[in-house]
Write a structure and sequence with these properties.
Structural class: alpha+beta
Order of helices and strands: EHEHEHHHHE
Radius of gyration: 18 Å
Distance between the termini: 7 Å
Strand content: 15-25%
Number of strands: 4
Largest sheet: 4 strands, antiparallel
Helix content: 25-40%
């Protein structure tokens, strides 16, 4: 058991060309009206500091495994924070702290900074999506 974290992108397509031609990619959906496309664009495993950031900045302090809308502004804020910590590792316990109460003594080791590099890549890709795509975050304990 542990913490799994997901970033999703979804797009409502309703009756556009993609919906009409979906059967060429998914024959079982022939004749169906496809209304939404959803893709997992990010996955983390036990990246407690990133989860704590989402809980504080997106979920209003509620850690309940629901799915939450994430604005592009929030993603930019997370990216700025990640970049600041990657630029100066001594800022990690202040800006992206590992919640000590849940996980014992925090370890700001190579794995921590590898998670930040991965987070940076995920967020940069998410920010390239067109404005009409919705981004959501969800975790699972």
């Amino acid at each position: 058991m542990g913490l799994d974290m997901y970033l999703y992108a979804s797009y409502c397509i309703y009756e556009n060309e993609l919906s009409k031609n979906i059967s060429q990619f998914f024959p079982a959906l022939s004749g169906s009206l496809v209304t939404k496309v959803r893709a997992q664009i990010g996955y983390w495993r036990k990246s407690y500091m990133i989860h704590a950031w989402f809980v504080k900045h997106v979920q209003e302090g509620v850690d309940n495994c629901d799915e939450y809308y994430v604005s592009k502004e929030e993603l930019k804020e997370l990216l700025e924070t990640v970049n600041e910590v990657l630029g100066d590792h001594s800022k990690a316990p202040t800006l992206l702290k590992i919640p000590q109460s849940l996980f014992g003594t925090p370890s700001y080791d190579d794995g921590y900074f590898e998670d930040l590099e991965e987070t940076k890549q995920i967020i940069e890709k998410a920010l390239l999506l067109p404005e009409d795509w919705d981004i959501t975050y969800q975790s699972s304990w």
